[in-house]
TrEMBL record:
It comes from Pleomassaria siparia CBS 279.74. One of its GO terms (molecular function) is hydrolase activity, hydrolyzing O-glycosyl compounds. One of its GO terms (biological process) is carbohydrate metabolic process. Residues 1-22 form the signal peptide. Belongs to the glycosyl hydrolase 43 family. SUPFAM superfamilies: Arabinanase/levansucrase/invertase. This is Carbohydrate-binding module family 35 protein. Keywords: Glycosidase, Hydrolase, Signal.
Length: 435
């Protein structure tokens, strides 16, 4: 194999990963998520609606003038772009889906007002339904949108931000926005989402820090009219909601358990197409009313039973068996162990692959993620920054990235760094996921 110098690899950083099409077998918080058409799923600030065996994911498409885009799935892993994106309107933020009567509606924020779209088909042919409206009772404007359907089938639009408060408005059976039924005025919050467990309403909200993540929290109440008890954090504070912002809570009623899923956005610095998603199961302590995100680097849910699982088959490669290769391209005598430096690469050889797209969990620590970051290359492909593959880079010590591996014990995986040595990037090993 020709030796690649770290400098050559650095020159190539930023190139998009070229991954062969294959089915997705895991939900990977923070990672780039590919659709069945091999495009990056572009549906931010959205929600998932289940109808029968099919899930519909709607969200704002950052690469298409913030139009509402939709994807469909039967397993919550593999998402097909809907045949006809809703292209009648642009700059609609945080679109949500509801079915208050025989038609389907999309409600989203346009110019800080509610704009509704209507169709008889859930996935296509939406047309603009009426003009932009402010919210009853006081002609409120707002920025963020949430959606909740109660047990009796009634739909509620959640809104937040302009007035800091979270407001809950009923959606009338004619699709218009009805009266305010609830108001949560306990601080400056946005990005509302709601779910209900045993008669208790749980309202998850974010703080107001723009595209930067913050510790999201939960309030609870016995009725939509309040009063609301909270806030309580839903994840350890330093994790900043695992580097995400709330958008929706999905309730999956399986045959063996009901699973509650947190859906969040892991925004890039401007809410652009590089933004990713953080979906995690939630645990609800019914006695204390505490809601906690259950963190998994990779997981999936059986949509029939509701059971959550994590990878079982993994092969681990310890850093002690990796080579440190210097600028001259020659393997040093020293084996890996200390922090990686800007003029060397840590190289794992003879890594076994199945052939095709495969998840590799990088186990590493970062002292200061603002100082620099790790990059990775596999075989003779260009190096890419780990954060371009997974927004959990630097935030967590197990970061799965999807790579193209050749079949057999023939793969070479190298890790290097960009930025300053103070980043303190210490790699412990790699785990190649085989299921
Ligand atoms: C908040 C909102 C996002 C987006 C950013 C813009 O975080 O929740 O949807 O509007 O502000 O700064």
């Amino acid at each position: 194999m020709p030796s690649l110098s770290p400098l050559l690899l650095l020159a190539a950083i930023g190139a998009a990963p070229n991954l062969a099409n294959a089915a997705n077998s895991w939900i990977v918080p923070g990672a780039a998520w590919l659709s069945t058409s091999n495009t990056k799923i572009d549906a931010h600030g959205g929600m998932v609606l289940q109808r029968g065996d099919t899930f519909y994911w709607i969200g704002q498409a950052a690469s298409h003038s913030v139009q509402p885009y939709m994807y469909t799935s039967t397993d919550l892993l593999n998402w097909a772009p809907a045949k006809n994106p809703q292209n009648s309107i642009q700059w609609m933020w945080r679109p949500k889906l509801a079915k208050p009567n025989g038609s389907f509606y999309i409600y989203g924020q346009v110019d800080r007002n509610v704009q509704a779209l209507i169709s008889t088909s859930i996935t296509d042919n939406y047309s603009v339904s009426g003009g932009k409206v402010t919210l009853p009772p006081n002609a409120y404007t707002y920025s963020d949108t949430g959606m909740f359907q109660d047990d009796d089938g009634t739909w509620y639009l959640l809104t937040s931000a302009d007035h800091n408060n979270v407001q809950i408005n009923r959606i009338n059976s004619d699709g218009s926005i009805g009266p305010r039924v609830g108001l949560m005025a306990k601080g400056a919050y946005e990005a509302p989402g709601m779910f209900k467990v045993d008669g208790i309403y749980y309202l998850i909200v974010s703080g107001k820090t723009g595209w930067r993540s913050n510790p999201n929290s939960v309030f609870w109440a016995t009725s939509l009219g309040g009063s609301w008890t909270g806030p309580v954090g839903i994840a350890p504070e330093a994790e900043k909601t695992y580097n995400s912002q709330n958008t929706f809570q999905l309730t999956l009623k399986g045959s063996s358990r009901t699973t509650y899923i947190y859906m969040g956005d892991s925004w890039d610095s401007k809410g652009g197409p590089d933004s990713n998603y953080v979906w995690l199961p939630m645990t609800v302590d019914k006695a204390s009313k505490k809601v906690s995100l259950e963190y998994h680097a990779q997981w999936k849910v059986d949509v029939k039973t509701g059971a959550v699982s994590t990878p079982g088959l993994k092969t681990r490669y310890e850093v002690q068996h990796a080579d440190v290769v210097g600028r001259d391209g020659l393997a040093g005598r020293k084996k890996g162990g200390g922090p990686i430096s800007s003029d060397s690469l840590l190289t794992f050889r003879n890594v076994a692959g199945l052939g095709g797209r495969q998840w590799v969990q990088i186990h590493y620590r970062v002292t200061d993620r603002t100082a620099g970051e790790a990059h990775i290359s596999v075989n003779d492909e260009p190096a890419v920054n780990v954060s371009s593959l997974n927004h959990r880079a630097g935030y967590h010590h197990v970061v799965p990235v999807e790579l193209n591996l050749r079949a057999g014990s023939v793969n070479t995986i190298s890790l290097g760094m960009t930025g300053r040595e103070e980043a303190g990037i210490v790699v412990e090993g790699l785990e190649v996921v085989e299921d």
